[in-house]
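[Q] Does anyone have a clean structure-token version of this?
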Amino acid sequence: MESDYGIMDLLEGKGTQRLSSIIMHNWGSSGSITLEHGLDSHVQSSPNGRANGRANGIAPATTGHSNGHHHHHRPNEATTNRKRPRDAIYPEETYRLRPDSGEDLDHIKVEYKEPGCCNTKYSQQLMHLLPFRPKRKDKRLLPGSSAGLFSYFTVHWLTRLMVKAFKSGLQPSDLWTIQADDGAEKNADRLLRLWEDEVSTSRKANQRPQLWRAVWRGVRTRVVVCMVISVFQNVLQFLGPSVLLKLVLDYINSPTIDFQYAAIITVSILIVNMLRGACFNAMFVVGTHTATRVTGAIQALMYKKILKLKTGGERLSAQIINFCNNDMERLFEACISCVFLTAMPIIFTLSVIYSVYILGPWSLLGQAVFVCFYPIMGLIAKAQSKVRVQTVKVTDKRVTLMNEILNSIRLIKMYSWEESFAEKIAGLRKEELKKHRVGALLQAVSSTVVPSISILATIVTFLGYTLTGNTLTSSEAFTIFSVFNAMQFSVGTLPFTVRSVAEAKVSLTRIQKLLELPEHKKRNGGLVNNNLALQIKNGTFAWEVTNIDFKAKDSKEDHPPERTESKKQNGVKSNGSVPNGNHHSNGVVLNGSSPNGNTVNGNTHNGNSPNGNSNGMNGIIPTAEPNSVKTVTILFNLNLSVQRGKLIGVCGSIGSGKSSLLSAICGDMKVESGDLQANGRLALVTQQAWIYNATLRENIIIGQKFDEEKYKEVLRVCSLQSDLNLLSNGDMTEIGDRGSTLSGGQKQRVNLGRAVYSDRDIYLLDDPLSAVDTKVAKHIFGECIKGSLASKTVIFVTHATHFLEQCDEIVVMQTGKIAERGTHSELMERKGDYFDMVGLDSSGKEKKNEDNNTQKPSEKADSADGGAPEVIEKSKEQESLNSGKLITEETSATGSVPMKMYVTFIKVCGGWCIVGLIFFAIVIFTLSRMFNAVWLQTWLDQGDGRKEERKENITMYNLTFSGDELLGSVTHNPDLWMYQLVYIMSFVMLLITGVIKGTGVTFRVLSGSSRLHNDMFWSIIRSPMSFFDTTPSGRIINRFSRDLDELDVRVPFFLEFILQGLLMVVGQMMLVCFIYVWFVVPLVLIAILFAGIDIFLNVGVRELKRLDNVLKSPVTQHISSSVSGISVIRTFDRESLFLSRMYKYLDQHSVALLVFRLSNRWFTYRMDIMAVMITFAITGICVFTKGSVSTALAGLALSTVNGVCVFIPFLMRMKSEFQSRITSVERIIEYAYDLKSEAPCEIKETQPPPDWPKTGAIELKEVKLRYRPELPLVLHGISASIRDGEKIGIIGRTGAGKSSLISTLLRLSELDSGSVFVDGIDISTIGLHVLRSSISVIPQDPVLFHGSIRYNLDPFDRHSDDAVWQALERSHLKAVVQKQEHGLMSMVEAAGENFSVGERQLICLTRALLRNSKILLLDEATASVDVETDHLIQTTIKEAFVRSTVLTIAHRLNTIASYDRIMVLDAGRVKEFDTPEALMCTEGSLFKDMMGAMGVYTVEQMRSLN
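[A] Here you go.
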């Protein structure tokens, strides 16, 4: 029955309920409220265990109330940790909010489940104990979580999928949906709670919190269950080769025959081994589910943290991807293998007891060897862990650099800098391989010592026993031999386990450093005047620069101090929204810190929060150590108040602090003093537009409810409608990663459209009009900023004076301070900095006499987008014909790994000869191991050397001897010393060959890995741009991080283990066949079955591994995209949307990973059953053919087969793992040798003269260009002749084909038809390096790389320091660089984050000045600088390139008004090409119309622009 009652009754304890404690999450949005309270006994629940109620719309007193809007209450620590009251009937109730719930309490849906005898924490898991369970109702859900006992531990539910994999291969759509219990969201929430508890507990104990302890608390129950199963498995594993084997050997040794007894012990061995296999499999299945939960939870937790960080950047992105790719693998292994830590003590204890029972105290010698083995392996594991930490640091650097290269690949190709970056990558790779080789050497020692330890224990025991005169019988010897072999498995897995756990701890320590980074905090300083939208009082603001150091141990790095106008990730500034995605519609959003230093969350009347916590993760996540955070003060003593509905223009020179002002308003900067208050929700349009891989519509509405009318209006005011007509699928066309398929102007207009659609109160616009042409800029300013946003508060950063004079007020920034403030007319009267700037911007003078709304080409202030046309023309975005699909699906090959791949791998590892020698070393090692056991049997069969004499006595005197009596005591053999010496020397030979084969395998695989990496790097960097446009960078990074890690670390380990194991198994089986010929029959039958099933089953394992690889790419891509857009996501309160997408991607990958891992168990278990059949067969043959061979031979056969059958499941697991992991090699080889390449770098036959081009004359003949064969033409038959030294201005609407023309000159895309001649040479006939290195380019997007300033200017060190300083002086950057602590060697952060966008473009200009080429291409080169600097730069270009041919793409028409000729492009065609004067005199000229939009109508006015 359902009962309706008010939510306030629940909260206030009225009526039937008494409130004990409240925990509220995400109040006012879709989420949940958990109430822990007591209920009176007469409350009845509905039949489905739910009681539903609706709120009365009354805001709870505990949450605070202002203007009818609810605020977000977070309990303080004491409240959170309160225990459940004794009178509580229901321990916990969860009130889940409906997805459509708004901010008001009317939409709360209350749910609770009534606990019963079976409704406990573990009820779902306990259901697995039922032998059989009914089929699940939802066929889409993963069957494993609802499987019965037999299906669960045998993984029978996976059979259909494996059959399908064999028949037709698998695709992602064939997989199930993961159950909630194994999903990322539920486990991340739980792990977060445990981590918070760990932090709280550690603080109370004055300790440093440890993430691994929180993870352990989360998994300990499941791990303990695995350990209990492991105990049973180990006991059963011991029984077979010890007690039961002794019974068999005693029976064989005795003269009596009892077939019934023989049958009983044979069947007993079968049952024990079957149970052992079942326990072993069950242990792995539980462990795999546990590992899936842990890795999903930690990745989700990291992503949550990312959304709360103040800054992101390329470096952070690459490291997070590295965590998700490599560290998750180690955590997964550790979760599964940690249970093996229980195996050693159990097996050790049992073997000590039984060995002493068999041999007496002398058996303790062998156990002592095992005991001594522990510290040796401990030292090796410690060394491996240390090496791993060092290796990871280098790998992080390499992956970070690779990520930087991929994000800047267009610029690298333009400059022909591939060689420079190849050297940097090669240097890091070389350093990384050094670390790997040390690890490989340790691994070789480990893989040699481990299989030798049981042999050494046997040798020591038997030598000690026989040297003291004791009689060693065959049954005793081979029982002890078998017992020590049984220990071999536990010992063998120990180094693997220890290494896995150690590496997992290293990974968790690194991840913990991420979780401890400072977070974006929401500050509160009291209520502001409702007439004011923004108020800053005496505000001094600084950037907090965090030392992101993810090394496992605390360390500090000394970086040069960073200066920045706007510290941001990829130029995207942060905002002021709450980390959890909630916002206030009409309250204080940002403010200063509370007096006690705690961050305040919530709007309270006194300005202080009741709890004082808002650190993102419920306020108790520790921040990074204080000494790891530096502050760089940028803004000083600001006083600014902005009334609601005002348009405020902000201008100033580059580096003056304009973008930092917006960042301070957003809350991204530390308030060192003063107060900042914002009354309303923020919308931010960043300098560098953030576009993610989704449809154009989704990039605008970004998860909000779709309102068609509103959406159409946004398209209109942002001038996007005409662009949609060019798209293959309209606004549903997919956009490339980082907006790679949009022009600069289009990206910025989508960026602006997103803000307009969001309908916020305060708009922060960081020069959004810089990347569009004059007509579009005029339209957007009039219709959008002055139209749609007329009632909003707008802070508008720009240098364009014709925009500024229409603002209500203007703020002029200089060196981090407000230099002037007032209306346009007031500032002009003062004749200060603003007056000087307007004077330089001569277009403003003429414009006053014209229409007030006319517009100058949008003068790019600090626009990150490079303020220019497209890097890739609009038509390029007409992707995939009619579907609008751009990004290609990642290929997932089906079937077996082709033999060609193995052949290629062998060749890169040294060729057949080297591989043959290594294989020979492994064979020698295997024979050495086998020889040891055979020699023991030979020694025991010799007895005292008087066997023949006793045989004669049997015949002569009719005596009866047992097998041991017939042989006599081995201690009385005159050749005893010889047998003992050979026994010892066989062990020495084992060690020598072991080290040789171990180092040989690992070193050669690493050599092959190095070559494959280099080949893959060059293959990718030499791929055409179309490859990068259709391939997400995350997919490529996957090859360089996860797949390469598999090849470096996993493949050598697995390869050595498997070759060694397989040879051992085959050799030992052949040995048994020599002893018992009848054993050949069952062995051949089972071997055929083995081979057949192996072929069948491995297909499924490989298919699932491929899906695992394919579904990992969206995870890394989503992380990369989110890191670059952290502030945009936060500004628009879209954290929950992107978090839910992350959950979706994680769950999709988790299903693939879980099913792949369980397919290994499905495969191994069936192999194990066949191995048990082999044991059963040899035992039956031994007991039923009693007397046919000696007891020693029977003992050798039985102990050998027992050892093999215990080892086979583990070997088969490793084999299937290897076969699945070899797909990583396949993926690397695909990218190394199968990608389409650009034209050659150099062509000797057509090499132009060294001084080419001499003059710089360019001729275009019927040039037609399309970016890919399936796409339409972008350039339609362009013909033009450009004389040497001529200055050509190229203009046109966004998408007209301007940047495509640049692409043709640099051959970034090959022509469809036509030709381009430079100095009479067809550029299609010469090498790309020769061509691109002969042309200077200043690109649209200013790109800098992590490294010194000097490296960014001259990566090949071709110029002297004096030349570099001279170039810096000419580009007006010398003063900026001189201010840096380390001058030219000062560090540039990834993507140039510590420089303003204007300064970045000046650095690009300096590069061109250093090259001093005969041809200079400028793509809006000065778009991000102020007017004064623009004039200086234009003068520099005229002086420095007076004899060079200059082609300039510009939206600032004053920059090209004095050029020799103007080329006007429209829709990929040349519409006009003449002198500026001629075009101004031509009626209907497009150039004249564009000048008219600036208020320039005559030739005289145009000339005055200069």
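[Q] Thanks! Anything notable?
[A] The two ends are 83 Å apart (CA to CA).
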